[in-house]
Amino acid sequence: xxxxxxxxxxxxxxxxxxxxxxxxxxxxxxxxxxxxxxxxxxxxxxxxxxxxxxxxxxxxxxxxxxxxxxxxxxxxxxxxxxxxxxxxxxxxxxxxxxxxxxxxxxxxxxxxxxxxxxxxxxxxxxxxxxxxxxxxxxxxxxxxxxxxxxxxxxxxxxxxxxxxxxxxxxxxxxxxxxxxxxxxxxxxxxxxxxxxxxxxxxxxxxxxxxxxxxxxxxxxxxxxxxxxxxxxxxxxxxxxxxxxxxxxxxxxxxxxxxxxxxxxxxxxxxxxxxxxxxxxxxxxxxxxxxxxxxxxxxxxxxxxxxxxxxxxxxxxxxxxxxxxxxxxxxxxxxxxxxxxxxxxxxxxxxxxxxxxxxxxxxxxxxxxxxxxxxxxxxxxxxxxxxxxxxxxxxxxxxxxxxxxxxxxxxxxxxxxxxxxxxxxxxxxxxxxxxxxxxxxxxxxxxxxxxxxxxxxxxxxxxxxxxxxxxxxxxxxx
Length: 477
Description:
Blueprint lengths: L2 H6 L11 H5 L11 H7 L13 H6 L9 H4 L6 H21 L5 H6 L2 H13 L6 H17 L2 H18 L20 H22 L21 H5 L33 H19 L14 H15 L8 H9 L3 H19 L4 H4 L12 H26 L11 H19 L5 H23 L5 H8 L2
Helix pairs in contact: 6-8, 6-9, 8-9, 9-10, 9-11, 10-11, 11-13, 13-14, 13-16, 14-16, 16-18, 16-19, 18-19, 18-20, 19-20
């Protein structure tokens, strides 16, 4: 072949007088003689033309360009909603990091970043709702998250229902096959894909529980209809290692598993997300209870709904492995594995849900529709409810202040600003309404609580570039 084709490593047709490749590229074919190529390279002033230009990224980092177009970049022209919404969310956090490390940017500018990408993603999803796929469900879940961040709550409410219906249509609430450990050669998808489907389904469950908030008519998904195991821990997921975990019910595994496939302790394979899902289920029951106090038993009775729920929290806490407690060691290890934000959310949710359970002792603050009448002989129980609510509000602030020291990104979950706001309200209400300010103990408690209140306000201000709700919480009287 000619010298140009050999340099390009393509097949040359050696057509006379010039090959087809050179003719197509408008190049002068050097011919097929053995010495012509050497002469061409040696002669000064000979015109040379590149067959392709390096891409901008390779020129910027001064590396050799292969000329191939990355797959994710090629997807930009295929109407990929998932790509658009990932870019939309990524734009916010890119500017947030830039604002924190390089040059401060206006909060509204950071918050508005990626809006056009998010709109493109939404347009693609709703242009054809009949196009139901795993990727479109993933995109819809992220669109819900995006809408909550920018305060588009009506859209988020509608999209949450779309996500649950997509999940039901795709049947991700069921295991893809009985071959959970991927031992059969006939398995059509990988262990990683199966685990991704489970995590996607549980994300839809969490979203539905957030939207429902204990109101049955707003809740679409029921735990008994989700017949998949809980997510495994991140290490197995990243290594694409299949494993058996428990289901929502403690100590239970999937019914169809063979006895020899079940490990001695399936809970060892469970990570933060699995325990968070069980906590979300507890929270649904708590919210359902506090919204139906008129039909509930007296809370001071040992068989009351409150006692059962309190036992549920103790049981949940007792099942946690040591590496999930909120301790300096856990903070360090979770930060190294990029899970510190998830750990902070787990414990904020735990303490906030206990606040919700015992808020029956603060009916004026939470505007309880049917408050419980506490008889005089139950004054100690009432004080116990108020004290427990206050202590858990303080613990929320301790977790948030500890997390924010490691970066604003640790507070990236959309619910964190609401948790910080409610924690502040409970502490202020307890200090101003439950205590006598003339007592020394009250003044000492106020002095100890003031740094926690300041930490909450600081965290809310740091969250303003991430959530519209954060600014509303800061400005709220």
